[in-house]
């Protein structure tokens, strides 16, 4: 009987005790709310498949649109790059053709210079022959000298 009376005394709360407990619970709730305000919720590195939160459709559509725009810009840049490569290829071909043309012209110039030198040497040779023939004819007689003076002396034909 003593134990039953003791347990019955322990379980009985007075109105003050009950109010004190309610106040204490309210204070704990307020404290918890204050602590939650100071906390920052971070994303977990580990994804829980059950608690995976699907993004709202607006964000998803916006990201899809951004990806589409980026892909379109990427494709435009690739096309531009291909065009530039083709243009570079054509310019290199044109450059090689012009270099070949230039080397051909340089070879022609060298050939013309050699030909000019050859013609100059032929002219010098003919002058020497003419002076020798004039000197030999002047010593050989007045008859040939008069022919040379009259312009009847035949000169060797000039080759072209």
TrEMBL record:
InterPro entries per UniProt: USBP1-like (IPR040171)
GO CC field: cytoplasm
Region (Disordered): 122-160
Domain of life of the source: Eukaryota
Biological process annotations from GO: negative regulation of canonical Wnt signaling pathway
Keywords: Coiled coil
Biased composition annotated in UniProt, kind: Basic and acidic residues: 122-131
Biased composition (Low complexity): 132-141
Recorded coiled-coil stretches: 25-101
Protein name per the record: MCC
């Amino acid at each position: 009987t003593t134990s039953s009376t003791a347990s019955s005394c322990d379980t009985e709360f007075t109105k003050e005790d009950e109010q004190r407990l309610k106040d204490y619970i309210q204070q704990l709730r307020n404290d918890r709310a204050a602590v939650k305000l100071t906390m920052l919720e971070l994303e977990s590195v580990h994804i829980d498949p059950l608690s995976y939160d699907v993004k709202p459709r607006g964000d998803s559509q916006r990201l899809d649109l951004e990806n589409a725009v980026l892909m379109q810009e990427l494709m435009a840049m690739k096309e531009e790059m291909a065009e530039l490569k083709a243009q570079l290829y054509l310019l290199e071909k044109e450059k090689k053709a012009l270099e070949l043309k230039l080397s051909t012209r340089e070879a022609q110039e060298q050939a013309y210079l050699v030909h000019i030198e050859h013609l100059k040497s032929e002219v010098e040779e003919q002058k020497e022959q003419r002076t020798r023939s004039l000197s030999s004819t002047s010593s050989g007689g007045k008859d040939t000298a008069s022919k040379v003076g009259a312009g009847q002396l035949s000169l060797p034909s000039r080759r072209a």
